[in-house]
Each structure stands twice: as C-alpha cells, then as structure tokens.
C-alpha cells in the first residue's frame, strides 16, 4: 500500500492510499480520485520524501518552516470540517423546501429551529430582501456520507 500526499486544484491537501503510484495515475486519469473537502476531481500528487530517522541528524529551518505551514493548513482544514460537522448535527435538513420553510419559520407559521437545505441564488436573495437571514454553506462531499 502506497500513501501519497495529494492536493486538489483549490489547494486542499490530503492523503490517498493506493496499491502503487501507477494505480493513482490510472484512477486519476479516470477521474476516480476526488478531494474530500470540496469534491474537485483535478488532483495532483505532491512531492514527498521518505522519512529517515537518523540519530544526531540536523535539519535547517526552511524545511521546518514549510512543514509548520503544511501542519497549520491541515489543522485549519480539520477545524473547518469539525465546524461543518457541528452545523450538520445541529440543523434539520429540509432539502429543496428550504426557501418555503425559512419563510414559514420567519412568519411564525412553523416552529423556530435551525434548518439547512438547497435553494436557488434568486430565492436566497429574495429571502434576504424579506429580512430572513440565510447563509450559503457548501457542504464538502466528505460530509455527505459517512467515512469508512
């Protein structure tokens, strides 16, 4: 099993596990590899070096700084994913009925609660014009299904 460092066209970094580097190339060409954050199918392999554990070895500051930036990016992504999971847990999915249900709640025709769903940009704009607070929140593909 080969663990590869990958990055999508939007800059999200993640790991992928493949039988070989050729297997990654094959799956990538068939657009079977996608970013777990945004679902982008344009994924590239990042350069990586094997880890060597040498006693007494020293390293210069530049690789440490790059590693620190990479670690910060991973931590930010993890925090963003956790926040999205929390939103999903604390809201009711009303699907395509979002605009209708938001109006019902706003005009006290339905119980007040936090909802999420799908609506058109035009309907979202109309809701805002009516004084109904809405916020677009794209849900990454990784959160739409349980991860194995």
Descriptors:
single chain, 148 residues, alpha+beta
Number of strands: 5
Distance between the termini: 17 Å
Give, in spatial order, the strands making up the sheet with the most strands. Answer: 2-1-3
Structural classification:
alpha+beta
- What amount of the residues lies in strands? 15-25%
Average pLDDT figure = 82
**Computed CA radius of gyration, to the nearest angstrom:** 21 Å
**Order of secondary-structure elements:** EEHEHEHEHH
Major pleated sheet: 3 strands, antiparallel
Number of domain modules: 2
Overall 3D shape: elongated
Tally of separate helices: 5
Helix content, binned percent? 40-55%
> What low-confidence regions span 5 or more consecutive residues with pLDDT below 50?
none
Question: Would you kindly provide a written description of the structure presented here, covering whatever features stand out?
Answer:
- Pfam families: DUF1178 (PF06676).
- InterPro entries: DUF1178.
- Residues 50-69 are annotated as: Disordered.
- With 148 residues, the chain is an alpha+beta fold.
- The chain has two domains: 2-45 and 63-86, no CATH class; 91-133, no CATH class.
- It is 41% helix and 16% strand.
- It contains five helices and five strands.
- The protein has helices at residues 21-29, 61-89, 98-106, 121-129, 141-144; strands at residues 2-8, 13-18, 43-45, 92-95, 115-117.
- A three-stranded antiparallel β-sheet has the order 2-1-3. A two-stranded parallel sheet has the order 4-5.
- A hairpin with a 4-residue loop joins β1 and β2 (13-18).
- The protein is elongated.
- The model has no long low-confidence stretch (mean pLDDT 82).
